[in-house]
Specification:
Shape: globular
CATH topology of the largest domain: 60s Ribosomal Protein L30, Chain: A
Number of helices: 8
Largest sheet: 6 strands, mixed
Radius of gyration: 18 Å
């Protein structure tokens, strides 16, 4: 990971914050206070992996509780495969998407997505399905135990979480959905000194490490 990125006339340092292996249901605020706050300087903001937010909320599913149905198995056959990311190639993960969005909406998404592909338009399936299903993360056999056995569902009330972090720590917060394919900003607190587009570009290479690196937080600091 390059620690410094340049955007226009500005440079930003990304400082990874190493933690212990965060347990399901553990206080996110306590972890931030222990590891991130001692490193912060005035003007910093913190980027937080959506996965760690869901883990702290215990908003997860163990793979033993998920039985992939015929629809999930059908959809994954047409999902784009990536050499460096599991994506939604596992039927169990897609089953969670079906459960979140509901079968009728998923079937409509399949239909409209197929029509879109005929005209070279991609991403319609995810937009129509909605319900933040693209934020589902997990069931990755390459992940660190025990996380590899779990899927993290979309974090609950992410905007509220960011607001609470800023209120309790005085550090503006951003929650991102990052992987080896793409990075999206899910939520931001009000005092983050950059807009959502800039925050995404600063973090576009997904600098967080959530396996044995154990750096689910990134402090961002504007430098001369």
């Amino acid at each position: 990971m390059e620690r410094i990125v340049a955007l226009g006339d500005n440079c930003y340092e990304r400082i990874p914050v190493r933690t212990h292996r965060i347990a399901f249901g553990e206080s996110l605020f306590a972890v931030l206070a222990r590891y991130a706050l001692p490193l912060t300087q005035k003007g910093d903001w913190i980027a937080i992996s959506e996965k760690v937010v869901s883990v702290a909320q215990n908003n997860v599913r163990h793979i033993s509780t998920v039985k992939a149905g015929w629809l999930a198995k059908l959809i994954v056959k047409g999902v784009k495969k990536y050499p460096n990311d599991i994506g939604f190639s596992r039927p169990e993960k897609m089953q969670l998407a079906v459960e979140l969005a509901g079968r009728p909406r998923i079937m409509l998404a399949i239909l409209l997505g197929a029509v879109g592909k005929l005209f070279g338009i991609r991403g319609i399936f995810w937009r129509v399905a909605g319900n933040r299903i693209s934020e589902i993360d997990g069931f990755n056999p390459d992940a660190m135990a025990p996380y590899k056995e779990y899927a993290a569902l979309p974090p609950r009330e992410p905007e509220k979480v960011c607001a609470q972090i800023e209120s309790k720590t005085a550090v503006p917060a951003v929650i991102i959905d990052g992987n080896n394919i793409n990075v999206e900003v899910i939520a931001m607190s009000k005092s983050v000194p950059v807009d959502k587009k800039t925050a995404r570009l600063i973090l576009l290479d997904n600098p967080m490490g959530q396996n044995d690196e154990m750096t689910p937080f990134i402090l961002v600091r504007r430098i001369p």
